């Protein structure tokens, strides 16, 4: 892989989320791993509009485009949009309400 990846040019194949994870709508999601540094993966992830649940891994990400609200099992909710840096902890249960397709670059 090249030393430079133009994130805007990364094609992310999308698949419908499992019905057991979907709360509302018909969201699709997908990711592409771009690099591995030691045991850490760097990649791009995308989810289309809708509401879905997830169980997180240790991760930091920067939102490249789109917007969403992430609600945590403890009731905390955060709104994220382009330019935001977010950290997640392994095992956290979340609900993602994606308003417009969300694309993020992650380190996990």
TrEMBL record:
| InterPro entries per the UniProt record, alphabetical | RmlC-like_jellyroll (IPR014710), RmlC_Cupin_sf (IPR011051), UGlyAH_Cupin_dom (IPR008579)
The domain of life for this entry's organism is Bacteria
Could you tell me which residue ranges the (S)-ureidoglycine aminohydrolase cupin domain spans?
38-106
Name the chain's protein: (S)-ureidoglycine aminohydrolase cupin domain-containing protein
């Amino acid at each position: 892989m090249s030393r430079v990846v133009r994130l805007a040019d990364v094609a992310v194949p999308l698949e419908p989320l499992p019905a057991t994870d979907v709360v509302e709508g018909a969201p699709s999601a997908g990711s592409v791993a771009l690099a591995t540094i030691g045991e850490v993966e760097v990649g791009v992830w995308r989810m289309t509009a809708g509401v879905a649940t997830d169980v997180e891994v240790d991760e930091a990400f920067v939102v490249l485009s789109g917007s969403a609200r992430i609600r945590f099992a403890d009731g905390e909710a955060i709104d994220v949009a382009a330019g935001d840096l977010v950290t997640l902890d392994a095992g956290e249960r979340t609900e993602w309400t994606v308003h417009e397709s969300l694309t993020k670059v992650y380190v996990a």
